[in-house]
Design a protein that fits this description.
Blueprint lengths: L11 H14 L10 E2 L9 E2 L9 H11 L1 H7 L4 H9 L2 H11 L3 H12 L22 H6 L7 H12 L4 H14 L5 H19 L2 H10 L1 H11 L7 H6 L7 H9 L7 H17 L1 H11 L6 H4 L11 H9 L4 E2 L4 H4 L1 E3 L19 E2 L1 H17 L6 E5 L4 H10 L15 E5 L5 H16 L3 E5 L3 E6 L12
Helix pairs in contact: 2-15, 4-6, 5-6, 5-10, 6-15, 8-9, 10-11, 11-12, 12-14, 15-16, 20-22
């Protein structure tokens, strides 16, 4: 749809994961460790941010963002991504013709259809015809005032009521044809043509397609305000505006992006993920089915980061001890002043039942611990008066996980990412609203970099770290 609105939807596997890593999911360190570590600081003078935006790696940042934000695309696609892709693909011939006429990438127009309506030309947001409607979800006001579409809202509403009460399929089809004449948003051809007109207006305004597609959800005026507050610059891209804005760096632009309260800021990344889904649907449907199973297997994308069978699982306490001795696991330091987090006293509370010390379960994979350090330091940089984050869970073995699952209804009885050493939990207890907001920013930004998957539980935030966080390990030294 155009303008701001609240959206209604917020062996093959191993090969897919390896291919993604080869495509550049691992972010390189920048700044060389010079100056003070300041996550989200954008490498300001005297500081460095290992994950700061680098214009030379724009494509990598965009790919990471598409993958990192992809979970909701899979989880919220009506009927699943396979069904949504099938419906969307039905309109590809029409999309090709319309996109060619406007000089746009048909794959991006197709992704927009996937994301906006899931390939359903009769869908109405919120049941109100004044709202986003049709294959490309156009507001009635935008349709008539900007895009030159014929929309007789009163007649469209009358026909919609008659369609809902139609007694026969033939009668329904006749009424639907009549509605398309009085409300062109229901006509896929007219809807796509209007969308291309909007994108053409936006491209003329911004000079490039990434901003044009971003504005389709955000609105041209809102995006103009973001760019104004960012401060401009040569060869500016949406990737730079997004990843180079934070509470510490270009804070006005970040403030606008964060206040939209809908998908506006990450809409472009979801479009790129929808584009990838449609490509897989055509070229490798088996991989798409497998990826969909992983994405829908948990409340976050944690299974995509570490599919079962591709990452070592610690079966028993001895496996954890051996991994720690071999430096495959690293003990959590309990130095809140230095690292910004502290170990909850109950971490490892079931260890005695396995004849172990709690310290056995106070460890993580090196890259997971390094990301925890980066996250905690980021919270402290943004909200300096914050109390240390409370780490309530770290590595577990399968025996320990069974004990946790018996005591905690939220814990899984099956494959747990804790048993890989790549997951930790942070208590949902914050010293101030500023700390809570800083923590939320860090979670969202790291997810957009495809370095973590996270989910909100009743008592904790459960975070799973990608092995692609390995370049952060120098932060441990």
């Amino acid at each position: 749809m155009t303008g701001r609105r609240t959206r209604r939807w917020q062996g093959l596997i191993g090969a897919l994961v390896v291919a993604a890593a080869a495509a550049g999911l691992i972010l390189a360190l920048t700044g060389g460790g010079k100056g003070k570590l300041q996550p989200a600081g954008g490498n300001a003078s005297g500081t460095y941010d290992p994950l700061a935006y680098d214009a030379g790696r724009r494509a990598q940042f965009e790919q990471n963002a598409a993958t990192g934000e992809g979970h909701v695309v899979f989880a919220k696609s009506p009927g699943g991504v396979i069904a949504t892709a099938k419906r969307t693909a039905h309109f590809r011939p029409l999309i090709d013709a319309t996109a060619k006429a406007g000089g746009f990438d048909p794959n991006m127009i197709e992704a927009l259809v996937f994301l906006e309506s899931a390939g359903r030309p009769d869908v109405v947001a919120g049941g109100d015809l004044a709202n986003a409607t049709g294959l490309t979800q156009i507001l009635a006001e935008t349709a008539t005032n900007l895009l030159g579409m014929h929309v007789n809202l009163a007649a469209s509403k009358r026909l919609t009521r008659r369609i809902d009460n139609a007694r026969s399929a033939a009668g329904r089809r006749k009424l639907e044809r009549a509605r398309r004449r009085v409300d062109q948003r229901f006509d896929p051809r007219q809807s796509l043509a209007a969308t291309v007109r909007y994108l053409t207006i936006a491209r003329k305004q911004f000079g490039q397609d990434d901003f044009a597609f971003t504005s389709y959800h955000m609105g041209i005026g809102n995006l103009q305000s973001v760019l104004r507050d960012y401060g401009g610059g040569k060869n500016l891209t949406y990737a730079q505006v997004y990843f180079d804005s934070s509470p510490l760096n270009h804070p006005k632009a970040w403030g606008l992006l964060s206040r939209f309260g809908d998908d506006s800021s990450n809409y472009y990344w979801k479009l790129l993920e929808a584009k990838r889904i449609m490509a897989l649907y055509r070229t490798n449907p088996a991989s798409l089915r497998s990826l969909s199973a992983l994405q829908n297997g948990r409340a976050s994308a944690e299974l995509v980061l570490h599919p079962q069978g591709t990452t070592q699982v610690f079966a028993d306490p001895q496996a954890v001890l051996d991994a720690t001795s071999a430096d495959k696991l690293v003990r959590l330091p309990n130095d809140p002043k230095k690292y910004g987090f502290q170990i909850d006293p109950l971490l490892g509370q079931f260890a005695r039942r396995l004849h172990q010390r709690p310290a056995t379960y106070r460890a993580l994979r090196p890259e997971a611990l390094a990301l925890l350090v980066y996250l905690s330091q980021g919270v402290r940089s943004i909200a300096p008066a914050s109390a240390p984050l409370q780490v309530t869970s770290a590595v577990r073995d399968e025996q320990y996980q069974h004990l946790v699952a018996a005591a905690n209804i939220e814990a899984t009885h099956g494959y747990s990412l804790h048993s890989t050493g790549y997951a930790f939990d942070i208590r949902r207890r914050y010293s101030s609203r500023a700390e809570a907001l800083a923590f939320q920013f860090m979670l969202d930004r790291l997810q957009a970099m495809n370095l973590i998957a996270w989910v909100r539980e009743p008592q904790a935030i459960h975070v799973t770290v990608s092995s692609a966080a390995r370049p952060l390990e120098p932060l441990l030294h």
